[in-house]
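#dry-run=false #mode=assembly
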Amino acid sequence: MGIVVGDISKKFGDFVAVDNVSFEVKAGELVALLGPSGSGKSTILRIIAGLETPDSGEIYLTGNDVTSLATQKRRVGFVFQHYALFKHMNVEKNIAFGLEIQKQKKPVIQKRVAELISLVKLNGYENHYPDQLSGGQRQRVALARALATEPRVLLLDEPFGALDAKVRSNLAHWLREFHDNFNITSVFVTHDQNEAIEISDKIVLINRGRVEQYGSARDVYEHPESKFVASFIGQVNVLEAVVRDGRINIKGADATFEPRDGEKLQTGDVVLLVRPEDIELVATPVSNSLPFTIKTIHYRGSHYEINCEVGDILVNVIENKNNFIRQQWSVAQNVFLSFKDYRIFTAEGGHEKVREKLKELGYIE
Amino acid sequence: MNRSNEMVKVIRQQRRLGKNILVAAVVIWFFFMILMPVFGIIREAFREGLDVFIAALTAPESIHSFVLTLWITMATVVINTVFGIILAITLVKQRFRGKLFVEGIVDLPFAVSPVVAGFMFILLFGPRGWLGSWFEAGGIKIVYALPGMLIATLFVTLPFVAREIIPVLKEFGLQQEESAYVLGASKWQTFWKVTLPSVKWGLAYGITLTIARSIGEFGAVLVVSGSIINKTQTATLHIHQQFTDYNYVGAFSAAIILAVASFIILTTMQRIYRQKGVD
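#status=ok
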């Protein structure tokens, strides 16, 4: 048993920061709390650490109820967003702090600090002060300091938020490796979906103080349960369509296509969710393709973003660089789209019911 | 081309002239306001020779006044350091009703004339004052005695420590303290090991200012003490007494001691200020 967050709520004045949040982190997992800023994810982390008191709900760490336990006694490792290193202490002293508070013997402290310093690859920096270190180095000191007292769980608040992109990605992967070697139950807060997808075992998606979805990165990406999830993790095209005679007709587009292999759909209104990278762009019609016209082309570095239109409908397509160069796409060109993957929403009782359901899930206003 | 070269030359000349005027103003100011007076004090103190100078300094009332100043200064530093830290932490970290009001009046002692402050304490602690009559009944003399002088000095030096560490504490924020809590440190341990070390240079600067002001305080102490020779006369009051008694050697020789003390404080302050900048 790692961490159990049981139905916690927290208000700041009238503002509901955390609203009946529950989830469980299994021992040894690395879980991301992902959400936009102000969504309450940091507050949840601080409640787990005991730095905030929830108005209601319980927190269990390794099977023990710690809800009313002071921060000092929870034995959690916490890495703050801006590291919060002790500025007047050198690297060694920073890492030794928790052990000194525990009144460990000198040789024990020295040995443990030396171990941690080589673990986070800061040999030679023992006597440096925090303001003599780079952001990445400070982050590693903060991590070593948090791990020195052998905490039950490791909590990281936007651990890479203050670093530049390159260092960020390196450090994120390093953290994953590190976590696997250490095998400590960890939760980290981030607003960066790529980071969450790349290094976590599971993602808790938080929006407005609530859990929108909890699952593996793959689950959350491929089976988003709400529009918020679908659009927060990657991009998505929302298309209204009608099913007739088992074929799907996008409203406004003058063509139909067959659903995925053997999928039987009832006649009626539906809504399609299609990720831009799941759409194939071809120059000549193939089976199940729909005629569109290229409206705009944007260069995005690793790929191109192409907006295609037909009537009032605008569809966003991601085309990789090599395909783009081979096909020589240009604005106003007539093209054909085929949907390789999509999510379909149906409901009995016609269009109104579908709209209601979509409204409930936040797909439409 | 030539024309623009000419222009540059003229502008440069004007600039040089402006710079020279500024430097001259500073030098003249420094000469009349600092060098001349210091020179004057030294000359007056030694006018009748070294023996007289030493005799004036070692006179019982002179020694008594310096010892008294020393005691008051030490007591003031201890009390106002502790209280200043409490005040600063309370104002930065606690939320309470009237906080803005308290924050506003922390600086009051800077704004009030020391003489006025002295009269304020006479009203309060004098034999017929609100609190004074009560103390008097218990046989404790506040005004025209050491306690009153200490209270007056505490009042005029109250803001120094708090004012110096409030901005440091604000910038310091909460995260380092929270780090300490998570690592198992109690609030008390966190205060000693994390909070206090991080404000130490600001604190040192505040204490230095407190010392300087305690030694130099005149107005408030004059009013409260009654300036009784060998009893309630501090160094500054002693100098004033000697001067009004036309004993210029006595006045200026004591003044030299205070000037030397000021010089030491000034250089200490400079050193601390540089450290503060480094941190």
